[in-house]
């Protein structure tokens, strides 16, 4: 099942060019606790807190003039409540036409390498 939420857009202009969407910490904490019960172990919290990576160090964007578009603005997304268990990480799938559009504005392909997702944590 898909649910709607929103987050705050944050640009990291230093280093490898990152853009994230800060999301509700309580949302991730709820699903992290469910995942930990199922795995019977703890998960390390994501380094940057509850977030969706929109641009993950893909180098200087082709359309650099659009860098900082809507910085600190709100953007909507949908997340699937089915927890995905990988070898080392646990996450929720995310979809958002707004995030796709931002990547297009920057001259990037529609999806980042690992798709849009909300990381719940790394398996310890």
Concise structural overview:
The protein has 124 residues and is α+β, with helices and mostly antiparallel strands. The protein is 19% helix and 40% strand. The chain has one domain (2-123).
> What value does the Rg take, in angstroms?
15 Å
What low-confidence regions span 5 or more consecutive residues with pLDDT below 50? none
Please indicate the count of domains. 1
The SSE string, one letter per element, is: EEHEEEEHE
- Count the DSSP helices: 2
Strand order in space, largest sheet: 3-7-6-5-1-2-4
Helix content: 10-25%
What can you tell me about this protein's structure?
With 124 residues, this protein is an alpha+beta fold. It has one domain (2-123). The protein is 19% helix and 40% strand. It contains 2 helices and 7 strands. It has helices spanning 25-39, 97-105, and strands spanning 2-12, 18-22, 43-44, 51-56, 74-85, 89-95, 117-123. A hairpin with a 3-residue loop joins strand 5 and strand 6. The longest helix is centred in the first third of the chain and has 15 residues, at 25-39.
